[in-house]
Amino acid sequence: MTTRRTTVAVVGGGQAGLSTSWFLTRDGVDHVVLEAGTAAHEWADTRWDNFTLVTPNWHCRLPGYAYEGPDPDGFMTRDEVVAWLAGYPGTFDPPLHEHTRVTALRQRDGGGFTLESTAPDGPVTWEAEHVVVATGGYHVPIVPPWAAALDPAITQLESAHYRRESDLPDGAVLVVGSGQSGAQIAEDLHLAGRKVHLAVGDAPRVARTYRGRDTMTWLAEMGLYDTPVATYPGGLAAREKTNHYVTGRDGGRDIDLRQFAREGMGLHGMLEGLAAPGGSTLRFLATLTAALDSADATYNSICADVDRYIEQAGVTAPPPSRYEPVWAPTADPLELDLAAAGISTVVWAIGYRPDYRWVGVGVFDGAGRPTHERGVTAVPGLSFLGLPWLHTWGSGRFHGIARDAEHVAGVITRSLPAVRRAG
């Protein structure tokens, strides 16, 4: 087995890992970026054909690299994001090792770390003084354990494996989960003419545009994406929140589940379970009415926050408005017979959980999430990047990754004597 040495090993070649590499390169720090596939490959591998960003294009900025296209207030498609990211490595030539999967990380006696990896030319052991884990926090799809007992005639797939409506067998589709992916996949199927049922969770929603501007542009101007998680309402619990559902499709618009229901989409509350093993009848909690009301309350609350900002800042803007429900369930549905409803497919969009079993260092809480302060753990030399709410709301987005990467890379650089830096 080959053994190689480096000062810093960055695990993951997505936007977080590449951003870290940009700062380390700028500061002359010897390092490598170890990527299991190809750089930023997940944008192509885990998004559906009609995917668009939900944040305006001007949010898309990485260290030394920003969106410079003709539509800063628009929303890039999946393929446009992939093309934009593909241009990034060429701007600074990172020491990127693609198709190199790190399978184990452990501390070395006396300090530093050992990383076991598989590479195109065989296994490689890396020894590093510092490690930045930049593999994100969404690794394993959340699927209820009873899903295996569902009627085998029904196709099941996770949201990351959904590509297009035409790939699915004929029939209606049940989408489970109303976060950003679930709501947008339900919209994609609905617009394609499929009969869709949606199990609605507790995700909030937000207006696409309000008082003449994109709501996320207002929020950025108001400093919401820059507020540290420790001072955000609810504190560290914000890391567990689901993102607001909205879409950038066709130039951007609201996702109004009530309007979808008026157009024929079946809405249900949280999915509770299977009525009988091997059957096709599902049970739901009586949460639909409350979930829709709560999402709308968040929508109106955010608009009210914008109203206050406009007034305080003296900004000239169109008059305020308030969302009023266009539909309401007469009762919360408690059961759905998939066979009777003609449902051939279930798309699981409940979410993903982290999987750091390959990291053999004790820095995790009881839920398997790394404990850290702005990405820096209590174990000297070990950091994490690319996590939602790592430091601010912008941390898990293009909007905030440069700031996080600069902080973590700066901690590393300041710990090294100049003689240990490359060049």
Structural description of this entry:
It comes from Nocardioides nanhaiensis. The chain folds into 2 domains: 2-139 and 354-420, FAD/NAD(P)-binding domain; 144-348, FAD/NAD(P)-binding domain (3-Layer(bba) Sandwich), CATH 3.50.50. It is built from 8 helices and 21 strands. The chain has helices at 15-26, 42-45, 78-86, 180-191, 215-221, 257-262, 288-313, 398-415; strands at residues 2-11, 31-34, 61-62, 65-66, 96-97, 101-107, 113-119, 122-133, 140-141, 155-158, 172-176, 196-199, 209-210, 213-214, 266-268, 271-274, 281-284, 335-337, 343-348, 352-353, 382-384. The strands form 6 sheets. Strands 1, 2, 5, 6, 7, 8 and 21 form a 7-stranded mixed β-sheet that branches. A 5-stranded parallel β-sheet has the order 10-19-11-12-15. The two termini are 29 Å apart.
